[in-house]
Design a protein that fits this description.
The complex is a heterodimer of chains A (163) and B (289). Chain A is mainly α and 163 residues long. Chain A has helices spanning 2-28, 31-47, 58-76, 82-87, 96-111, 114-125, 130-136, 141-162. Chain A has a domain at 1-80: Rna Polymerase Sigma Factor, Chain: A. In chain A, helix 1 crosses helix 3 (58-76) and helix 2 crosses helix 3 (58-76). Chain B has 289 residues and is α+β, with helices and mostly antiparallel strands. Chain B has helices at 3-12, 19-39, 64-72, 111-145, 204-208, 212-230, and strands at 82-92, 96-106, 156-167, 171-180, 188-195, 200-201, 254-256, 262-266, 279-282. In chain B, the strands form 2 sheets. Chain B has a 6-stranded mixed sheet, covered by helices on one side. In chain B, strands 7-8-9 form a 3-stranded antiparallel sheet. The longest helix of chain B has 35 residues, at 111-145. Residues 38-78 of chain B have low confidence and may be disordered. Classes of the chains: A mainly alpha (163), B alpha+beta (289). The A-B interface holds A 3, 6-7, 10-11, 13-15, 17-18, 21-22, 25-26, 31, 35, 38-39, 42-47, 49, 89-92, 94, 102, 105-106, 108-109, 120-121, 123-125, 127-130, 141, 145, 152, 155-156, 159 and B 3-4, 6-8, 10-17, 19-21, 23-24, 26-28, 30-32, 34-35, 38, 43-44, 46-49, 152, 154, 232-233, 273-275.
Chain lengths: 163, 289
């Protein structure tokens, strides 16, 4: 099982690396920190592959590891400044106005605590099912749901402050 | 645009840096080595999606002209109007893997209509495939430009297929679906509902009458509420999030389903989060055709 699982994991990571980067970046807001998180998550996952009970769970299992590593990494790289976003040219192909708007939108997500951020990212950006999110966050369905509602409410509140 | 959609756009616009490929490969190698040292077991190296170049097998789509000619040659024995596969082809190379089934209609007793619709379908499918191929090519270039190699490049799969949803003496209804492996959002559907008697394409006004909008809006709203109640995983955008607030006109996507009812279709992301997929709503009213 281990070899098959390992190959499955590697295939999964390679196919989804861009997605995984986006998830990591959402927590770290810093390129280097996001890459660190990805590196840590991949090596840890491969080393602990026998803990993956069923191959079908490879994506939720790996998300859990990745999100943990991303949180760790973001704490390490805390000296992040808002400007860095523009300097990093994270949003290429955008005109200046668009960049400002994007950063505004982005900050709305950043304002959420990591629990709320996680449900928003997984549910709406990664299109995951509530059960999957419950698995990743080691909670249950009703907790995920109440976090979702809370997060949406907070997003709307933050948005209204802006306008 | 709803807030969530806007946020998703911003999220999607996050650009992975060039080093990502390198970091991923290095980490995989590192992870495997560390494990190997620890357990002293033989680890088979993962066959990274090795791209084999299959024999190139392409049949070009018929152009309108040749198609029209082939239509003339069809003997008049079979009289039933039908949708058939005029062309089926597969093309496979290191960048993309294309599978297409191209439908056409015949024996409708209305050559003008057939020519027009068949021409439209074949041009549309040609365009779709051309566009998808360009996207795959761009993607390949982006991968190579950022230090990736063709070895770990996974070809983009492009599929075009069709399904006949309903057919009788008066109506043929079918849907063409295109999907692309690169992004699930790249699934598109095209609907054809043909009134054989009058030789025209049907719109919602034709099948549901002048009050089509009220009928559809009310029914869709009702069913959304029902679905949300039935399953906690069903979630639709609210109106201020950009969710369903009524169809715009009689040309909204629909098909005639096996019960001979009009089924209204909303594309992915149109009224619900992406994981909900394409949304269909059958309208119980008898159709007027």
């Amino acid at each position: 099982m281990s070899h098959v699982a390992q190959e499955k994991l590697i295939e999964y990571i390679k196919t989804n690396q861009n997605k995984l980067y986006k998830v990591a970046f959402t927590y770290t807001r810093n390129e280097e920190a996001a890459l660190d998180a990805i590196q840590e998550a991949i090596t840890k996952a491969l080393e602990n592959i026998e803990k993956l009970k069923k191959e079908e769970y490879v994506n939720t299992w790996f998300y859990r590891i990745l999100i943990n590593e991303a949180l760790k990494s973001s704490k390490k790289y805390r000296n992040y400044t808002e400007l860095e976003l523009i300097e990093n040219e994270t949003y290429v192909n955008s005109n200046e106005e668009k960049i400002v708007e994007n950063i505004d939108m982005y900050n709305i997500i950043q304002k959420l605590n990591y629990k709320l951020k996680t449900v928003i990212v997984l549910r709406f950006f990664e299109n995951m099912k509530i059960e999957e999110i419950a698995f990743i966050t080691k909670t249950n369905i009703s907790t995920v749901k109440s976090r979702l509602y809370k997060a949406i409410k907070e997003i709307k509140l933050n948005l209204n402050e802006k306008t | 645009m709803s807030i969530l959609k806007k946020l998703k756009n911003v999220y999607d616009s996050i650009e992975p840096p060039q080093e990502l490929d390198y970091v991923v490969n290095k980490s995989i190698h590192q992870g495997k080595m560390e494990k190997k040292n620890r357990y002293r077991t033989y680890i088979k190296f993962a066959t990274s999606a090795v791209v084999t170049t299959f024999a190139l097998f392409v049949i070009l789509l018929n152009t309108n002209e040749s198609f029209a000619k082939s239509m003339e040659n069809i003997p008049v024995i079979s009289k039933l109007a039908e949708v058939f596969t005029i062309n089926e082809y597969e093309e496979s190379n290191e960048i993309d893997l294309i599978k297409a089934k191209v439908p056409a209609i015949r024996n409708t007793g209305n050559t003008d209509l057939e020519n027009r619709i068949n021409y439209e379908i074949s041009t549309k499918i040609n365009d779709i495939i051309e566009e998808a191929k360009n996207r795959a090519e761009e993607y390949k270039e982006a991968v190579l430009a950022t230090g990736g190699t063709m070895e770990n490049f996974i070809p983009i799969e492009i599929n075009v297929d069709y399904e006949i949803t309903y057919q009788d003496d008066n109506i043929i209804s079918f849907v063409i679906t295109k999907s692309e492996s690169m992004a699930s959002a790249y699934q598109e559907q095209y609907f054809y509902n043909i009134d054989l008697e009058n030789g025209k394409e049907l719109n919602l006004k034709d099948v549901l009458g002048a009050n089509y909008k009220e009928i559809v809006d009310e029914e869709v709203k009702k069913q959304i509420v029902q679905r949300e109640k039935e399953d906690e995983n069903n979630m639709y955008f609210t109106e201020d999030e950009g969710g369903f607030s009524g169809i715009e006109d009689e040309y909204h996507d629909f098909y005639i389903d096996k019960n001979r009812k009009a089924t209204i279709v909303f594309q992915k992301y149109e009224i619900a989060p992406g994981y909900m997929g394409i949304q269909n709503f059958e309208i119980p009213d008898e159709i007027l055709v």
